[in-house]
Amino acid sequence: MSRLHEDAVRVLKEWTAPDGERERLRSDYLDHLAAHPDGMWKSCRDGHLTASALVVDPARGRVLLTLHRKLTMWLQTGGHCEPDDTSLADAALREAREESGVPGLRLLGGEPVTLDRHLTPCAWHLDVQYAAVAPEGSVEEISDESLELKWFTYDEVAAVADESVLRLVARTRSLL
Predict the structure, then answer these.
(1) With 90 as the cut, is the pLDDT of residue 29 above it?
(2) For the chain, how big is the Rg over CA atoms in Å?
(3) 137 Cβ contact list (under 8 Å, min separation 6)
(4) What φ, ψ does residue 59 adopt, rounded to 5°?
């Protein structure tokens, strides 16, 4: 079992879900990890944990979303865990930095904001979602994983994103 797998189990056991659906997902994620020693990696075709982070600028009331190259949807930054990741939080922050180009991001609270499970072309993603606070004056830089990066006010997100992103934004705002 990898160090990352152990960290994911610890994080999920310690995390308090904000509602009944997230509690069911938390339990399902733990069951998945117990049944799949490779459940952290893209190679696990039965599904795998992913780590994402909503980049937020609380002072200006906005979030940075990426127009995902493969899915052509406005989403938070995030993706597959890598062998060098030592924790879910590190994986989420790495993904946020890589996809946003924003230096100096810090995780809000250091623990997950919420969970979301969704089917992708590669497999089920059991996403552990964080929020990353952007420093004042941050400038984004697009990566090759995105078609576009754009800041949206909290109210504008509903016009471009799906229910998962809306839930993540709402939950993040409740923690700010």
Answers:
(1) yes
(2) 15
(3) none
(4) -65, -30
* CA-closest candidate to residue 77, choices 172, 149, 10: 149
- Residue whose tokens read 């409740």: 174
Beta strands in 41-101 (DSSP E): 48-57, 62-68, 74-75, 77-80
Lowest mean pLDDT among 76-80, 139-143, 165-169, 171-175: 139-143
Percent of the chain topping pLDDT 70: 100
Residue 75 and residue 29: Cα distance in Å, rounded? 21
Q: Which helix (H) or strand (E) holds 9?
A: helix 3-14
Find, among 64, 43, 40, the residue nearest to 51 by Cα.
40
pLDDT tens digits, one per residue of 84-131? 999 999 999 999 999 999 999 999 999 999 999 998 888 899 999 999
